Each structure stands twice: as C-alpha cells, then as structure tokens.
Amino acid sequence: MAAPTTTVVRGRIPPRTRPPRRAPRGRGTGARRGRFRDLAVLMGPWTIGFVLLTAGPLVAAVYLSFTDFNLLGSPELVGADNYVRMFTADPRFYRSLLVTGTYVAVSVPLQLALALLLALVLDNGVRGLSYYRALYYLPSLIGGSVAVGILWRTVFGYEGGFNQVLRLLGFENLPNWVDNPSTSIWTLIALNVWTFGSPMIIFLAGLRQIPMELYEQASIDGAGPLRKFFSITLPMLTPLIFFNVILQTINAFQAFTPAHVISGGTGGPARAGRFVSVLLSDQGECSLGLAVASLGRGGHG
Questions:
Q1: Helix (H) / strand (E) containing 40
Q2: Is the pTM of this model over 0.85?
Q3: Residue 200: its pLDDT value, please?
Q4: Domain 89-295 adopts which CATH fold?
Q5: Which PANTHER family does the record match to this protein (predicted)?
Q6: Bridge partner residues of 77 (DSSP)
C-alpha cells in the first residue's frame, strides 16, 4: 500500500504534519515572573510617589474635610457640617469662586491663542528656531516663582515700568494696577498669558506633523491662508488643543504663588485677586482651620 502524499498547491504552504513543540513546564511561568519583576522595578518608584504624594494626601484631605481639626488636637468627625457652613455661611467662598472662574475663563483662551499664533509664526521656517523655542519656553518655567511675582508687582506698581512706558506715550493719572480693585485681576491674567511657552511648544510639534500634501492640494483648489487654517490646521490640531485646554485649565485653577505674592498674601484690595487657593491658604495657615481649609472656612466650633 502506497504512503499518502501531500499535494502542494502553488502559492500555499502545506499544513504542518508535526505538532509544535511545547515549552518545558515552568519556563513560561518563569518568563512571566521575570516580566512582572521588571515591570515592578520600573513602576515601583512612580507608584510609591503617587501613593505618598498624590493619593495619600487626597484621601487624607477628604477625611479631614469631615472633621474638626486645627492642628492642636485630634480630628473629630463632624459629618457634613463643614460643607453646610461653606455653602450657607461663608460669602468669601463664592467671591473667591467668582474671581478664580474669571481668571480661568479669560486667561486660558488668551494664553492658548497667543501660543498658537507664535507657533504658526515659528513654523514658517524662522532662522534660529531652537533659540526662539528656548526663549519662549522660559516664562513657563519661571512664571510661577516668587521672584517673578515680586517682579510683576514692581512692574505694575505706580512707579513701575508699565506706567513709565505709558507716561512716555502721553498718558496721565495712571493707577497702581496691582492695588486697584478693578485692575488687579488683569495683572494676574497678564502673568498667566505670559507663560505661553509650554502650549506653544506642543502646538509647534503638532504643526510639524501635518502633511504638506494637504496644504499643496488646498492651494491647487484655490484655498487661501484663512481657509487652510480653518479647514486643515485647526482640525488637525484638535487633539492638541483639547489637551492644552485641559492642562492649562488645571494649572490655572491651581494658581497660588503669583496671586499670593502680588496681592501681598491678602487677595489684594477688595479681595479682587483672592483665588480659592489663596483663601484656602489663609484659612489653613492663619486660622488653623486645617480640617476645612479646602472649603474656605475655619474649623468647627
């Protein structure tokens, strides 16, 4: 009896007649353990930092918000009393919310618009691009420092550089922009807009990833610069715009040092620059109301 033959069809690989070899028992488990060990070594430092510096303080803050704690004794649970007092008996909280919301709603769009504008300019083949990127990114690194806050307070003071320039242009009866209730918030907004370097770098990187073929095809179809911007550039940058909006909004809500330094730690005249973060600091440091510092109210009792 003849042995069966395997017919090979052109373009196809004949089926395997021998089952694949299995790895020795234990080798796969050891490899998985090795990968898990490597992952633990790489993720360990980040995990420890996240638990100790972010998750732990967050859980502790939530717990303390339901207690009466002034750092001089043990925390005592008071339920939701701190929240009730915050929403019903502390008008400063709503005022600080209004100031913070105005700051975020105005400064973030202006900052991103300026960042995108400069990114478009730098994307057009400017010589010395690396130097401009470093120069424009510098304010993002130092904008939240105490030194810049002191400098900003000096520049926008009555005898500061800003008023000196306006006087040279013929303006008179200029105010102290920092100590004026109607203008102090705008000095803080200007400082946040000035720190446009980080979103600008992100926008510039996104512009470099847009295929030039899209612009060439649009030019053939007769599209002008504005049409190219709204039909190609803006849609292609949508993910980065969303990312920058989220990131800069979070940073704006967390702003503390500039407002604290420029306003002298009090929120300025009529508390026009008293952000929620400044109110929390005032309650936590001055009133020792640590249990409800995040609620803008002193300790219970």
A1: helix 27-50
A2: no
A3: 92
A4: MetI-like fold (1.10.3720)
A5: ABC TRANSPORTER PERMEASE PROTEIN, ABC TRANSPORTER PERMEASE PROTEIN YESP-RELATED
A6: 67
What Cα–Cα distance (Å) separates residue 218 from each residue in 4, 35, 121, 204, 210?
A: 64, 49, 20, 21, 13
Evaluate whether 58 touches 65 at the Cβ level (below 8 Å). no
Read off the DSSP letter of residue 259.
H
Query: Side chain identity at 62, as an amino acid letter?
Result: V
Q: Which residue has the tokens 């992100």?
A: 202
Q: Record the tokens describing residue 258, joined without a space.
A: 């500039």
Q: How confident is the model at residue 138 (pLDDT cuts 50, 70, 90)?
A: confident
The single-letter code of the amino acid at 285 is E
Using CA atoms, how far apart are residues 124 and 228, in angstroms rounded to an integer? 14
**Intra-chain end-to-end CA distance of the chain, in Å:** 102
Residue pointed to by tokens 């373009």: 11
Residue extents of the structural domains in the chain: 89-295
Residue 291 banded pLDDT, cuts 50, 70, 90 = very low
